[in-house]
Please model this.
Amino acid sequence: MDELEELRARIDEIDAKLVELFEKRMEISHKIALYKIANDMPITNDEREKEVLNKNIARLKDRGFEPKLVEFFSMLFKLSKEVQNEEFKKQTKYQ
Ligand SMILES: O=C(O)C(=O)C[C@]1(C(=O)O)C=C[C@@H](O)C=C1
Model:
């Protein structure tokens, strides 16, 4: 295998793990939506988002990636809240 092929094979392995974890995160976010609906809570919790973001920034070995990680988590929160919003809409439709 030449170098590019090898590097792409490593990216493919990482992507497979990312997809698995992404799907798990979204499923848990969906469960959180059900809890929030049952307990009359809002979708967004800015404090929790800050906490999650800071905890994960602290895990970086190379702080140069911090702006990229901030973007990555902003996208995760956005998609997570979209999943929750879809559930909220479903539940309020027939009430
Ligand atoms: O922890 C929550 O309350 C969630 O709904 C999960 C989550 C997340 O995706 O991490 C999503 C929305 C909130 O604004 C905060 C965090």
User: Anything to note?
Assistant: Helices lie at 3-38, 46-57, 66-93.
